[in-house]
TrEMBL record:
InterPro entries: AAA+_ATPase, ABC_ATPase_HisP-typ, ABC_transporter-like_ATP-bd, ABC_transporter-like_CS, MetN_ABC_transporter-like, P-loop_NTPase. It comes from the Bacteria. GO terms for molecular function: ABC-type amino acid transporter activity; ATP binding; ATP hydrolysis activity. This is Arginine ABC transporter ATP-binding protein. One of its GO terms (cellular component) is plasma membrane. Residues 2-242 form the ABC transporter domain. Keywords: ATP-binding, Cell membrane, Membrane, Nucleotide-binding, Transport. Signal peptide: none annotated. Gene3D superfamilies: P-loop containing nucleotide triphosphate hydrolases (3.40.50.300). PANTHER family: AMINO ACID IMPORT ATP-BINDING PROTEIN (PTHR43166), L-CYSTINE IMPORT ATP-BINDING PROTEIN TCYN (PTHR43166:SF35). Its main location: membrane. It is a peripheral membrane protein. The keyword Transport applies. The lineage of its organism: Bacteria, Bacillati, Bacillota, Bacilli, Bacillales.
Length: 246
């Protein structure tokens, strides 16, 4: 249900993605690992067009796109794709002037045109799901980093995306707050939410992923099950990267 073929992206003279191919079935979890600067975040951001690829194609549910550097993607197509994706950023990016409840209601009212009552009901359900029913009226600055990130996950889920995209969701957190966020993501995986996750948490990656890709210098170096990629990597470079972590 998600497929990209021959995806390329450059920033000026720097080619950051050098031909990426991958497929992800509905309900599966893809984890992207690799050294810093290998293109993980750029690849993730291509899935909702926060970065526009220069070449290649993307299929996400019923949205299909072909990219060429010469052609601008129409705004309508960008919005169609964004409606299918929910993004969770490293730094939470909550609206600071809105409560947790307001944050989770916002997209439902503006993008999905739900009534406020309906949006509120769903927001409360989602806050409860991420363990924050009692924080609905709190503002972001009154919440810990782990709590803010859980609100961000509820917000991303609220618009019922086909896929959730996570960009290093725990790397801004104090170590003692990492577990509570990973637990929420793991629960979503168990429920069959389709997710693409960039992370440095290898134990978590092994636990949650159906497929792991290991990127290096803009290419996929290894791709397979957690066991294949983490325990039996084929390339010397992958072994080198994984050894540095352990
Ligand atoms: P990773 O997530 O694996 O650390 P990134 O996708 O963030 O890698 O970055 C890959 C490369 O692209 C890096 O060299 C980075 O400096 C560069 N890069 C990322 N975003 C931009 C940008 N907006 N403009 C210019 N260079 C960028």
């Amino acid at each position: 249900m998600i497929e990209i073929l021959d995806l390329h992206k450059s920033f000026g003279p720097l080619e950051v993605l050098k031909g990426i191919d991958l497929r992800l079935e509905h309900g599966k979890v893809l984890v992207i690992i690799g050294p810093s600067g290998s293109g993980k975040t750029t690849l993730l951001r291509c899935f909702n067009l926060l970065e526009t690829p220069d070449q290649g194609s993307l299929v996400l549910a019923d949205v299909k796109m072909d990219f060429t550097a010469a052609r601008k993607i129409p705004q309508k197509s960008i919005l169609a794709l964004r409606k299918k994706t929910g993004m969770v950023f490293q730094s939470y990016n909550l609206f600071p002037h809105m409560t947790a409840l307001g944050n989770v209601m916002e997209g439902q009212v503006t993008v999905q045109k739900r009534s406020k009552a309906e949006a509120r009901k769903r927001a409360l359900e989602l806050l409860s799901k991420v363990g924050l029913a009692d924080k609905a009226e709190s503002y972001p600055h009154q919440l810990s980093g782990g709590q803010q990130q859980r609100v961000a996950i509820a917000r991303a889920m609220a618009v019922e995306p086909e896929v959730l995209l996570f960009d290093e969701p725990t790397s801004a957190l104090d170590p003692e707050l990492v577990g509570e966020v990973l637990k929420v993501i793991k629960a979503l995986a168990t429920e069959g939410m389709t997710m693409i996750i960039v992370t440095h948490e290898m134990k978590f990656a092994a636990d949650v992923a159906d497929t792991i890709i290991l990127m290096d210098e803009g290419r996929i170096l290894e791709q397979g099950t957690p066991q294949e990629v983490l325990e039996q990597p084929k390339s010397a470079r992958a072994r080198q990267f994984l050894n540095r972590l352990s």
